[in-house]
Amino acid sequence: MSWTSKIRRVGRMAEPATPTPTNPANTVEPPTGVTGSLQLRHVDCGSCNGCELEIAGAFSAVYDAEQFGVRVVASPRHADGLIATGVVTRNMHQPLLNTLNSIPQPRVVIAVGDCAVDGGAFAGGYAVVGSVADVIPVDVRVPGCPPSPAEIIAALRTVTGR
After folding, report:
1. Domain extents for the chain?
2. Who contacts 82 (Cβ-Cβ below 8 Å, separation ≥6)?
3. Residue 70 pLDDT more than 60?
4. Position with higher pLDDT, 136 vs 2
5. Cα(82)–Cα(84) distance, rounded to whole angstroms?
6. Which fold would CATH assign to domain 36-160?
7. Rounded to whole angstroms, how far apart are CA atoms 45 and 82?
8. Alpha helices, DSSP H only, in 35-148?
């Protein structure tokens, strides 16, 4: 038996998606104009890269965040929202503001990880401006150090409604 005939015989093997999360504490209305998908620009404001690894895992083949209509894009001009990780350092304060101002309105801001949510272990550091919420308005918070890909996807699904 050839491998192509085995593929045809077995068919597609995928697990069904989990039910849509209905956590009223983290649920936000999708931004107006965003229908069925969410394009996000990621900004690392000064993290240890733990959250970046988990975000990469959320978009990997195992968790596949794209099946819920979420993509990471390279340009803030193509984005519907911002996903920020880490505490805002003095060097990243202005680039964060520039990126946010480049994303067209309406937009959604998602803070991923304890550092982005409340400063985490780096709060009060000499090179730290503050958490992401201290610098810009945050719509969705994903706590954890680092949060798992499943938690990140659950938060993203509250925005997309899928």
Report:
1. 36-160
2. 40, 41, 42, 43, 76, 99, 100, 103, 107, 108, 109, 110, 136
3. yes
4. 136
5. 6
6. Rossmann fold (3.40.50)
7. 12
8. 50-58, 90-102, 114-118, 132-135
